[in-house]
Design goal:
Nuclear Transport Factor 2, Chain: A; 157 residues; NTF2-like_dom_sf; SnoaL-like; Nuclear transport factor 2 family protein; 6 strands; alpha+beta
Length: 157
């Protein structure tokens, strides 16, 4: 167990829970890459942090809890939960996420979040779209394309 990296993961989630994107940014390496079922792959601290700012702006009353932090000198993991109301749909979402990390220069250089896209889409979009279409590749691509467009627009504003 590498206590420095466990503390780094904890600091990241404490900052996320407070919506403190400046503190979150200090946990990331300049060359960080991020991936999850929605955004898949984002490269560089500016792009990754823009995604976090966008996500925090799209949900109202975001509550973050985390547990099961573990790390070695090179890799780490955590479980975190995001509870929020999606402002675009007014629907309440409770997203359970498994996070995986790689470290370089005592910073997070790779961050991968994994969650059940089908369950998320059902909570975020409701019926019938989320329930019936959440598992189809075409629907996932549509949602991902929308997310990337929103991120591009957010970075331009």
């Amino acid at each position: 167990m590498d206590n420095r990296h466990v503390a780094l993961i904890g600091a990241f989630y404490e900052a996320l829970a407070k919506g403190d994107t400046i503190a979150m940014e200090h946990c990331y390496h300049p060359d960080v890459s991020f991936g999850d079922p929605l955004f898949q792959e984002l490269e560089g601290r500016d792009r990754v942090m823009a995604m976090w700012r966008l996500m925090l702006s799209r949900g109202s009353g975001v509550a973050v809890t985390f547990r099961d932090l573990a790390a070695s000198s090179h890799a780490g993991s955590a479980h975190w939960t995001a509870r929020y109301t999606l402002t675009s749909t007014g629907r309440e979402v409770v997203n359970e996420v498994e996070a995986f990390f790689r470290f370089e220069d005592d910073l997070i250089v790779r961050h991968r979040d994994d969650f059940d896209f089908r369950l998320w889409s059902r909570m975020a979009l409701g019926r019938p779209a989320g329930l019936l279409l959440g598992w189809t590749p075409m629907f996932r691509k549509t949602i991902r394309d929308r997310a990337h467009r929103a991120l591009d627009e957010f970075q331009l504003s």
